[in-house]
Structures are given as structure tokens and as C-alpha cells.
């Protein structure tokens, strides 16, 4: 017996999914996830900028940037330091970013290497080398020839 003012709560039974409905739902979810991942890969590749090419340093020297075996190399081709390799075997760490510990500075002894980052854009690249962690750094912006 119910006292005055207390209502009986109606309960609805939740419809349980059958095995076939669950499988269809799972397949739809997998297709959506695969589509999203595929779109992300295509978008990343479509927005990546070609790193290889000829560039001009701020001092007027020309440099050739190439990718070989999945690694980035930068070599000065004309100017006072022609033949000097500034970056050697840098690893790709992002769509347009390369990093490595074998960067050299033209005004430093060639035995010294630095941690470096090269970021490529459609108009050029930014090259940055650091010693002693991030406390002593030098950077340049190169324009694409």
C-alpha cells in the first residue's frame, strides 16, 4: 500500500542490443575511426612542405638542403664557407621539422657539434643550433631560391 503523495515509479526496461546489432555498431565505430585516422594522415602529408632545395643565408651564401635515407643534410654551396656541411643526418620529428645533434656552425671549429632544429616553410627555413642545453643558441632564417 502506498501512502498519500508517494507515487510509484514506473521503470522502463532498456532494450538490450542483440549480437547482430552490437556487431553492426562496432563495425560502424571502426570504420569511423579508420576514416578519421586516414584523413589525419592525408592532411599531414598534404600540408608538409618539401625540405629539399636551394636556399640563401642572410650573409648571401647559398646552401643546398637535401633529404637522403629519410635524413636532412644542409651544405653551403657558394660563399666564404663553400663546402661546409651545417646539418648532417637530422631526423624528421614533425610535418615540417627536423632535429639532430650533428649541426655545425660555420664560424666555430668543425669538430664542435650542436643540437639543432630546422623548420621548413614554403618560403624558406629556420635553422637553430644550441649548445649547453638551450642556454647558448644561434639561429638564421634562410630564403628559398
Kindly describe this structure.
With 145 residues, this protein is of the alpha+beta class. Helices cover 20% and strands 40% of the residues. The chain is built from one helix and eight strands. Mean pLDDT is 80; it is low at 36-46.
Give the tags:
145 residues; alpha+beta; 8-stranded antiparallel beta barrel; 1 helix; elongated
List the helices and strands and how they pair.
Layout: H1 19-47, E1 53-56, E2 62-68, E3 71-78, E4 85-92, E5 97-103, E6 114-120, E7 124-131, E8 136-144
Antiparallel strand pairs: 1-2, 1-8, 2-3, 3-4, 4-5, 5-6, 6-7, 7-8
- What is the strand tally? 8
**Uncertain runs:** 36-46
User: What is the helical fraction, as a range of percent?
Assistant: 10-25%
The arrangement of helices and strands along the chain is HEEEEEEEE
| End-to-end distance | 91 Å
User: What proportion of the residues form beta strands (DSSP E)?
Assistant: 35-45%
Q: What characterizes the major β-sheet?
A: 8 strands, antiparallel, barrel
Mind telling me the C-alpha Rg?
29 Å
Summed up, what is this model?
This protein has about 140 residues and is α+β, with helices and mostly antiparallel strands. It has one helix spanning about 20-45, and strands spanning about 55, 60-70, 70-80, 85-90, 95-105, 115-120, 125-130, 135-145.
Amino acid at each position: 500500500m502506498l501512502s498519500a503523495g508517494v507515487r510509484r515509479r514506473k521503470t522502463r526496461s532498456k532494450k538490450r542490443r542483440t549480437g547482430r546489432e552490437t556487431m553492426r555498431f562496432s563495425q560502424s565505430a571502426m570504420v569511423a575511426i579508420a576514416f578519421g585516422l586516414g584523413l589525419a594522415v592525408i592532411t599531414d602529408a598534404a600540408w608538409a612542405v618539401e625540405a629539399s632545395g636551394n636556399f640563401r643565408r642572410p650573409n648571401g651564401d647559398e646552401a643546398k638542403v637535401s633529404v637522403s635515407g629519410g635524413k636532412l643534410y644542409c651544405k653551403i654551396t657558394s660563399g666564404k664557407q663553400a663546402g661546409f656541411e651545417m646539418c648532417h643526418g637530422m631526423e624528421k620529428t614533425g610535418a615540417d621539422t627536423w632535429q639532430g645533434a650533428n649541426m655545425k656552425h660555420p664560424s666555430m671549429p668543425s669538430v664542435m657539434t650542436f643540437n639543432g632544429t630546422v623548420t621548413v616553410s614554403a618560403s624558406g627555413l629556420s635553422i637553430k643550433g644550441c649548445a649547453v642545453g638551450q642556454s647558448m643558441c644561434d639561429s638564421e632564417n634562410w630564403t628559398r631560391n
